[in-house]
Amino acid sequence: MLTHMLLGKKIGMSRVFDNSGTNIPVTIIEAGPCVVTQVKKDSSDEFVNIQLGFEEKKESHTSKALKGHFAAAGTTPKRYLKEYRTAAKSDLTPGAEVKVDIFKEGDRIRVTGISKGKGFAGHMKRHGFSGGRKSHGKNSVMRKSGSVGSSATPSRVWPGTRMAGNMGNEWITVKNLRVVRIDVENNQIFVKGAIPGSKNGFVALSK
What we know:
- By secondary structure, the protein is mainly beta.
- It folds into two domains: 5-121 and 171-206, Translation factors (Elongation Factor Tu (Ef-tu), domain 3, Beta Barrel); 122-167, no CATH class.
- The chain has helices at residues 64-72, 123-127; strands at 5-17, 23-31, 34-41, 47-56, 78-87, 97-98, 108-114, 120-121, 165-166, 171-183, 188-192, 202-206.
- It has a six-stranded antiparallel β-barrel. Strands 5-4-3-6 form a four-stranded antiparallel sheet, with helices on one face. The chain has a two-stranded antiparallel sheet with strand order 8-9.
C-alpha cells in the first residue's frame, strides 16, 4: 500500500559525493509542493483515493468543470493531476499541501514517467531481434521479421505479435530507486540512477 506520494518534473542528471568520496550519479527532480484536490473513500472504508495536483495553470486554459473541481478543494488550477490509493487511516484532506519532506534519505521509491519517443522503429531495434543470416541466397532481407502469419489456420496474424512500430513515448515505472539527498528549500529530490522521460517531463513518485 502506498504511503507517500508526490508529483514533480525531471530537471536533469548530475552527481553527488557521499562521505566516503564515492561518485553517485543522480537524477534531480523538482517534486512538489502538491495540493490534495480530492479525497474519495472506498465503499468498504478500507481504502482512500487521494488526488494530487501539481504546477500552476492559467484559469483561461482551464475548463469550467475543472475550475469548479479546484474551487471545491480551495486551490488554484493545476496542470497535472494523479490519483493514488492509500490506507483508510490517511489524514489528508482537500486543500492540504504535500511537500518533498515526506521522503527521507535512504528511502526506496518508484518513479513513473513517459519515456522519450523514438519514432518508428524496425523489428530488430524495437524488440532486439537478431536478424536473418547473410548466406545461402539471402538478399536485402537480413533485417526483416520473417513470417508472421499462421498458414491457412487460423489464417491471420495473432494479436500482440512483435512487429515494427512506434518506439518509446509510453508510461514507464522504475522501481527500487534510492533517495540520495533531499533539498527541502528548493523542493528537490536527488534519486540514484536514471528515470524515464526528457528534461522538464512530468514524473510521479511513490513509496
